[in-house]
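Hey team,

Filing this mostly as a record. A colleague (T.K.) asked me to run one chain through the structure pipeline before their review meeting, and I want the input and output archived in the tracker in case anyone asks later how it was produced. No errors, nothing strange. Just documentation.

Input sequence:
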Amino acid sequence: MARLADYFVLVAFGPHPRGSGEGQGQILQRFPEKDWEDNPFPQGIELFCQPSGWQLCPERNPPTFFVAVLTDINSERHYCACLTFWEPAEPTQEAVCPENATEREEEADEGGQARLSPTAPAPPSQLFAPKTLVLVSRLDHTEVFRNSLGLIYAIHVEGLNVCLENVIGNLLTCTVPLAGGSQRTISLGAGDRQVIQTPLADSLPVSRCSVALLFRQLGITNVLSLFCAALTEHKVLFLSRSYQRLADACRGLLALLFPLRYSFTYVPILPAQLLEVLSTPTPFIIGVNAAFQAETQELLDVIIADLDGGTVTVPECVHIPPLPEPLQSQTHSVLSMVLDPELELADLAFPPATSSTSSLKMQDKELRAVFLRLFAQLLQGYRWCLHIVRIHPEPVIRFHKAAFLGQRGLVEDDFLMKVLEGMAFAGFVSERGVPYRPTDLFDELVAHEVARIRADENHPQRILRHVQELAEQLYKNENPYPAVAMHKVQRPGEASHLRRAPRPFPRLDEGTVQWIVDQAAAKMQGAPPAVKAERKTTVPSGPPMTAILERCSGPHVNSARRLEVVRNCISYVFEGKMLEAKKLLPAVLRALKGRAARCCLAQELHLHVQQNRAVLDHQQFDFVVRMMNCCLQDCTSLDEHGIAAALLPLVTAFCRKLSPGVTQFAYSCVQEHVVWSTPQFWEAMFYGDVQTHIRALYLETSEDLGSPSQEVGEVQSQEDERSALDVASEQRRLWPTLSREKQQELVQKEESTVFSQAIHYANRMSYLLLPLDSSKSRLLRERAGLGDLESASNSLVTNSMAGSMAESYDTESGFEDAETCDVAGAVVRFINRFVDKVCTESGVTSDHLKGLHVMVPDIVQMHIETLEAVHRESKRLPPIQKPKLLRPRLLPGEECVLDGLRVYLLPDGREEGAGGSGGGPALLPAEGAVFLTTYRVIFTGMPTDPLVGEQVVVRSFPVAALTKEKRLSVQTPVDQLLQDGLQLRSCTFQLLKMAFDEEVGSDSAELFRKQLHKLRYPPDIRGTFALTLGSTHTPGRPSRAAKDKGPSLRTLSRNLVKNAKKTIGRQYVTRKKYNPPSWEHRGQPPPEDQEDEISVSEELEPSTLTPSSALKPSDRMTMSSLVERACCRDYQRLGLGTLSNSLSRAKSEPFRISPVNRMYAICRSYPGLLIVPQSIQDNALQRVSRCYRQNRFPVVCWRSGRSKAVLLRSGGLHGKGVVGLFKAQNAPSPGQSQADSSSLEQEKYLQAVVSSMPRYADSSGRNTLSGFSSAHMSSHGKWGSVRASGRSSGLGTDVGSRLAGRDVLSPPQANGAPPDPGFLRPHRAALYIIGDKAQLKGVRPDPLQQWELVPIEVFEVRQVKASFKKLLKACVPGCPAAEPSSASFLRSLEESEWLTQIHKLLQISVLVVELLDSGSSVLVSLEDGWDITTQVVSLVQLLSDPFYRTLEGFRLLVEKEWLSFGHRFSHRGAHTLTGQSSGFTPVFLQFLDCVYQVHLQFPMEFEFSQFYLKFLGYHHASRRFRTFLLDSDYERIELGLLYEEKGERRGQLACRSVWEYVDRLSKRTPVFYNYTYAPEDTEVLRPYSNVSNLKVWDFYTEETLAEGPPYDWELAQGPPEPPEEERPDGGAPQSRRRVVWPCYDSRPRVQPDAISRLLEELQRLETELGRPPERWKDTWDRVKAAQRLEGRPDGHGTTSSLLVSSVPHHRRSLGVYLQEGPVGSTLSLSLDSDQSSGSTTSSSRQAARRSTSTLYSQFQTAESENRSYEGTLYKKGAFMKPWKARWFVLDKTKHQLRYYDHRVDTECKGVIDLAEVEAVAPGTPTMGAPKTVDEKAFFDVKTTRRVYNFCAQDVPSAQQWVDRIQSCLSDA
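Output structure:
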């Protein structure tokens, strides 16, 4: 029984002490006046009576009633029922009223009214003050409280003749039962009667209608998310204008949480004064009046439910985990069936008559029933995961969370995880885990109904029936009997509050009330306590749990076959069949990814352990350890499947003898797993073991009491089935019946069991936490905060706050200072924490605990000592037979810096090597070593999978290509140990992801990293491989550049003198005024104050800068070395002027070569000789250059042979003075500034460029568009829409907008013509300046100028860099993708935007090509003029000029545009330490990619193959050659690299130049040659540039694991010969076929294309015949020549209908797409290269194309051309002609003697038909014959037409020739 009400309080309005506007509550009276002993008076009642604050009111409000809830310090809830009514305010109160707080005089009169002083403007309105009656109770009987307080108010208002003291006294002495379902009728002595109904079960919450109302107000989804939020400990805030609604909503939410109890802050009605409580860090459920909504706005982590508006607002930072599927959707649908039964019938054509909806109270119970079922499904089988740790004196129970999650298959589920970690669930376990207690509805449901719930899942009607049955029970709990007795309570009349109250609420007599209370208390003491005995029972456990969703775990579904493999392997190991076991091992390791196989392994290993020990030999030990490691590597730290738990006893059982007395256990080899450092794992293990022992303790005792022996068997079997909980339940039942001594004895036994387990676990933990080599504390450092118990325990912090508080936890927890603290100390601390936690929780006595603390350090110390011996002995073991390290082949001059470190090469996300979806063998992971040489990082090794075979895996890349290096912790593929790893990524698209072998110390790994870094970023460019190779320069010597930072003119000229071996006039050396910017500042534009320095250089040598005088002889010598540079050769070819005509100044040429920059004084990054307009003086160039960035002023780099338009390049314009040139429309003022004069110079310069073009030289009307009509425009087809128009030439705008990505659809109208009659016709500009949009902003084109600006948007260099990084990631991801698919590759490729940039470059280039082709010149002026400008200019020349598409031409193009014009290779490639921060930017690679795209579309236009492009792409980054080092010619001269080759003839030294290397290699193999080369002479290429037309360059994706990258040709092996023993020794011929793997073999080499194959075959046959093999190029050229000869008899027609020349023109332009690689021999390939690629004139030839033939017929001729004998003979020419040496070929098959100019020549100079030969006779020397030759070496061949005189080199060869010819004649 309990008191119905503890206190009755009367609270009234009182003034605020600090005189503020509001009043405050004052307790006028409280009864009883002294506190109850069991229940002190709650504080703060006056705040809760008026939650919105105490205020006076201008009118009488009706009385209000609500129930507030207060929670005391013992988390007991007190229900405060408050009834508030209003009374007229007293004068003292009114003074406080904020409305009239002006000075007023208060005079009290009888009515208690205040009369105002005459100064007041108006009579005051009557004010009313609130007064509240409060009942405080621990019981929640809202209706009874409402009636009781209403009665007291009615007595007062209606003036009933009832003593209020008696009523209040009766109320306070009334007692009611807590539960049990009984009814109690009470009367307060005012003629009233009330019936109090108690619930049947105390544990079930009473909700009345609150749940149903909550759903009505918020809806299903909102309530579900609030439910999840409350369960996962988020903050929930309700808003409403009604206090009663707030209280109901909070009560409803709590009722839904049953069977969990909410244990955080719970305040259904929060007073306004306490609003700051809302910013508490702990979770809460709080209700606040909607009037204070504004104050709740800035709460960032609170979920706000607005009951009146029906919304729930979840802040962005809060994530409410949803219920696990399928529960979420099932719950949702059942709720909608309960709330809206009409929904199912809404679509029926003939809906049934309306079904009766259940009452609100019933609906409330149905909704609760749905949630009760939900909890039964969520927590089903929870009792199987309870660990009973102690039974007596009180049960101690722990929940094994990990096992529960694992068995339910919900490890990943956020929701359940958070619920199980929450406080509510902890309370649930301690309350409901007890095995012997009263049970309730939930226990029944979770134990017996789960099967039914599962069966009903898909039957809505059955679910609904079940819900209704549960609802009946819940309803019955609240209303066990139909209400018989009616309430009878006096209520005040209607509108009674408006009547004037006769008097204020009276003061009551405390004495009377106290006397009534005391009377009742005395009576109670006499009566016996009516305690209803609780019925305790054993709580049923229910069926074992099942997974919520039967999921298959992807590819590792364990079939019986897999388990069989595991079992077989283990039995082989223990039977000693090691070879068999080794074969099965890879399959076993794969199977162990599945859970069943891991459990199977643990069970099988258990079978091989006898008496807790199993001694193995070394090989067995290794196998067992590997399998254990593989099992453990997939265990999470929770070990939810109990795998680590099953293996824990085994790791201390399996061992091997290392030496007498030293045994190594398996635990020393399986420590590297995160699970061992997880405190929760150890706790769960410990509690599980304790439970087993305690169960055994009680089972033994019952066995001792057991029956005679024959029954023992049966008893035993029953005993085995009883779970620990059953045993505990039995013991709890017997406990009260035991004697005191027996109880003590049991408690002691249990306590010592726990204690002994604690010692056992201290030992076990030291085994698994102390590393074998205690010097290696890496283990602990990597395990995140070993022993970080604080943060692992349940903190009362909500999820939203946990993040911010987490850092403050670990201050002393983990091993952040692992280097300083010793391992032993760390392990001791970890174990001590564990011991403290488990022992206090399981009630170990403090003495025992102290003892443990003393023991732990000793245990650890002892273990360390044993380990030292084991470590020492294990070092002496013969090492496992690791594969021999394969040494890589090195280049000549390449030296090993670090010898091989053993590593494992891991798969890097490229599927091919790992045997991914494409099939093929798993070449990776491979086991081997990594070598570091001066040039490369090389891995060589073998695949770890023994089934792949003895393949050698090589992966390497140049050190210089390294772009990123990061340290990893990775598991080795064999032993599954966690090892240090390193991931190296290179810009040649290679990735080495390595795990160091355990034998590699961390210091070796660190040394490797340091050395690698040193080689990658040498302090000076001289440290690079290309420069150290074969040179005397030692990298140790400080470079001169480092000594004096600004290389002065003197040093520059000294170098020039030295390298060119020439002298320079003395005056250069003495003058030192001009000092070029230092090495550091080269990248930036020159500072402003350098102007005067530059002007000094103008006086430097006046003669060079004045046009009149020619160069001095000494200068001319300097020039000669410059002239040999590539640029000059090309300028001469293009007819842009030679040096001679620049000296003699032939005026006819529009352009000249200017030596103004020969000392690199004007522009450091330009070449020494530049092409400028003839009319511009050298001294003007200096001033022009100032307008441009980096002084890179416009110079000509190419001229079209047809339209004579020129292509110019320059840096971008400087911001200020230059744009002024275009902007200033008016004439400059007389007082010009420096900048203005430069601008003028620039204007003149551009004008000179324009006028030097032949079409614009005369200013007749030819510069208008009438010159080429629109017909000409559209003849190209593509640019037909580009029409020119008035002032803003249409081309410019259209081009600009097109490149900015917007296609202008309609051509602009030509109507805005200027008024000047001379310009009425629209004209096309003579010069288009392509500049950056940002830089040309606001520039107005001047209609009088003949140039036009084309602003375009280009990407910046940093975008190229970022894009390239993403491209690298896409092509070589680094880690295997979760689900590899081509889509993910394509997606990441698209995100990289690489192809978009290629598209942009091609688009701009094609545009420039079009402009040049139509006769306008173009100046490309972008960024600094050395990145994108270079790309565009080179592409334009490549597309326009067929010469650049030959091998020699392409070399020239690169040397001219990229090297001479100063592309910053060293800076962009980050070659030295200074460039390290800027990183690798592949500008040149991007250009090569563009060339590749063009090559794909026009495969017949390029003499070089795609391999050539890849070769350059690889070596421009490799730093193997000097070609691509440094940033400009100036720097190369400075370092002495440019002219050193002259003069010194080096022998077979390593090639220093990439071109030299290409030449040498081309002589040996056709790898750089494109057989399909058949150019059209005048062809201008216009490739498609849309992204859809572009392909990913296979340079990025292919790899050759057999030999590493194929670009270092010396290292690449020939096609592998079959091994010796397999060679057929006279036996049957074996097949030479072999499998070719795409990522392993080099496909072009293993499967060469048809032509290469035949050329190889020819060489082989020649070698077999004992002849020196002929060069492939000679053979090839000869074959083509023969083709032509065959074609000649037909006149000049074609020999075959398959001729390429007959391919229609447009088809060729779009490119016939031919695959590089194996080509079928019947394709129509052109075999026509009109002259050998060496001649420079070939580009200007216009000869008619000669005939070509098919490949097929060519090969017939190749074989028919049987060269039976050949050699050099001197032949006397016809009459009066001299003797000449010729190359003669005697052809038996064709019966002819042919001769050529020389051996290499492909064109036959003449044929002597042997059929016409009459005789061969010895001859005599005639005039002009070679002098040194013997007379007998002469012979004559007489034909029917004439006599041929021949002379051999010596007599024997002459004899040979005569014999050969004779034999031919006799054969015929």
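Quick notes for T.K.: The longest strand covers residues 77-88. The CA atoms of residues 84 and 132 lie 4 Å apart.
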